[in-house]
Amino acid sequence: MDNCEELLPECLSFVKGIVDSEDLPLNISREMLQQNKILKVISKNLVKKCIELFQEIAENKEDYNKFYEAFSKNLKLGIHEDSQNKTKLAELLRYHSTKSGDEMTSLKDYVTRMKEGQNQHLLHHCRSAGKKRVSTTKEGLKLDESEDEKKKKEALKERFDGLCKVMKDVLGDKVEKMTVSDRVNHEAQALRDSSMAGYMSSKKTMEINPENAIMEELRKRADADKNDKSVKDLVMLLFETSLLTSGFSLDDPNTFGNRIHRMLKLGLSIDEDGGDGDIDMPALEEGDADAESKMEEVD
């Protein structure tokens, strides 16, 4: 609904309908409507009815899959904005799990399938439903794995140990330590912070994904020549990119931009010392500046 913030929150903006009430006065201004107690009661009941409707749709798995595909972002926004109804909205969320395959499961169904004695579930920043919460973004996550998988993981860590040392030397105090990630991830690298309280200020741990082609090529270059300037640029670029994707801010965006331009030139085989099409324009002379100023004053 358009222009109905007083009736429905932003997360329910996709809901369309007509609200008919005999309790609202006629010929009333928008400002008075915003302070109208009756309108607040109507809004509360509308949200309640919407959630009840969503719960009813959820009883039919096929219908709810279509609904969830279209409006899951709205439900998540509602959890963030509506503290009063976030528990009910959280029950409407669906997740992929290691057992669900292509299908999605609710937290309630997930808990009912847990084995006897299992007291952990791999959800982060979500209600724990009475179970111990384990973060998938932090070091120490343990999953069942065979001896072959353990040996493979140890071999990968040993293989990338040299690259981790090179990256730590390049980054210095910017990171507390470098690790080879145990987590399944498509990204080349990720940053994590051990505590949410110090999220923006504390030192970060940088994890690299040994399965990623970028990290494999970077490892080869670092093994060949750890003083290679392109290796240092790539390490800094990966670090600054992971800062942005992890929600941090850059201390020096200009240097980040220059580094990207330098890597673009390298990728396009452009001579670093050659001519540059982005030549700065000369400053306006004083006479020209005065003339332009006078022209702007003319109507």
Automatic annotation (TrEMBL):
Family of the protein in this entry: Belongs to the heat shock protein 90 family.
One GO term describing the cellular component: plasma membrane
Biased composition (Acidic residues): 273-290
Protein name: Putative heat shock protein Hsp90 family
Region (Disordered): 129-152, 273-299
A Pfam family this chain is assigned to: HSP90
Lineage: Eukaryota, Viridiplantae, Streptophyta, Embryophyta, Tracheophyta
Superkingdom of the source species: Eukaryota
Matches recorded under InterPro entries: HSP90_C, Hsp90_fam, Ribosomal_Su5_D2-typ_SF
Keywords assigned: Chaperone, Stress response
The keyword Chaperone is annotated on this UniProt entry: yes
GO molecular function, one term: ATP hydrolysis activity
Composition bias type Basic and acidic residues, residue spans: 139-152
GO terms (BP aspect): cellular response to heat; protein folding; protein stabilization
